[in-house]
Amino acid sequence: MFKSILVFYLIMFVVSFFVTELIVTGILATALVAYLLMYRIWYHARVMADTPTSTIRAASQGRAEIIGRIPQEKPLKAPLSGEPCAFWRLEVVVERKLRSNRHLPSLRAIAYSSPDFIELNDNTGSCFVAVQEAMFKIYRNVEKRQIVGRGADGLAKHFPQKLRPIINQVGVKDFVEHRIPMDADIYAIGLFESLPSNKTPFDNLQMDKQMSRVTETDDVHLQVAKETREQLKAQWRARMRQLEGVQSDDLLAGTHTVHTLRADGRPNRRFALIVSDLDQVRLAKKLMYKVVVAALTGTVLLGIGIMGWRDYLM
């Protein structure tokens, strides 16, 4: 009996010794992560604030902010709110659950009213913004809804065919809708490039090779990505044939110059494509608030960690 009690207290002493050390180390590591996050957000805010605002006609090749409107003759009906708009984006996160109460990996899917590019017009020209690459920072026109159980109130039809059975399964589905109203100014920040009409923005041999290896046995997200990429290429060529005024079977001649806005993937210059209803100054201010929060969090955790190590060593 005495030996058992002695062993128990010895184990507790050893565990408390290492647990205290691990807790303090974890607090310091979390402080370091907070500081790294602070730097990353600060860098994005600085790059955003330094990005020049330009008209489409005067924009130079490189990173730029374009302010324009979506030329839409007939308003679209948003799927979640039913409100009229020029463009909508619908996102769903599905938490699936089996009868045995075992959870499956969650599914995240996004649908767009225009799945390839949205056209921005600023009265000096038009620019095609890559929808699939964009981060939408829409703050004014947002709708949310949670659906529990089987089915999705008919919203699954907006997503790719392969994902609809998963969305309609039993589970918790969180839908978020972002809308761009008719005649509303849109601020887009990204890599501005001018291309001949016989070249697509998706000309990437490395990506094509990766997608060619995707089969029916691979993850459903990879299958959807492969199908989406082929659809985007076909839709872009159809746009360009309409622009050049040629038949669907004719080759594109490259007689027109098309302006595009995409994510900046150049080495050492990587930056997301941002589409927002706020200008870059207000977006940068929102990011700076996050910088302050991350800095305060890191400072508090660093102080707690230093005090913990001091007490531990004493």
Helix content: 25-40%
Average pLDDT taken over every residue: 79
Q: What integer value in Å does the Rg equal?
A: 26 Å
What is the 3D form? globular
List unreliable stretches of 5+ residues. none
Q: What's the helix count?
A: 5
Largest sheet, in brief, is: 8 strands, mixed
The count of β-strands is: 14
Question: How many structural domains does the protein architecture include?
Answer: 1
Give the secondary structure arrangement, pairings included.
Blueprint: H1 2-50, E1 53-54, E2 62-68, E3 76-77, E4 84-85, E5 87-96, E6 107-112, E7 117-121, E8 126-130, E9 134-137, E10 142-149, H2 164-167, E11 171-180, E12 186-196, H3 205-212, H4 220-244, E13 257-262, E14 273-276, H5 280-313
Parallel strand pairs: 1-2, 8-13, 9-14
Antiparallel strand pairs: 2-12, 3-4, 5-6, 5-11, 7-8, 10-11, 12-13, 12-14
Helix pairs in contact: 1-5
Structure description:
It is a single chain. The protein is an alpha+beta fold and 314 residues long. The chain has one domain. The chain is built from 5 helices and 14 strands. Strands 1, 2, 7, 8, 9, 12, 13 and 14 form an 8-stranded mixed β-sheet that branches.
Overview in brief:
The chain has 5 helices and 14 strands. It is of the alpha+beta class and 314 residues long.
For the structure shown, list the relevant keywords.
single chain, 314 residues, alpha+beta, eight-stranded mixed β-sheet, four-stranded antiparallel β-sheet, 5 helices, globular
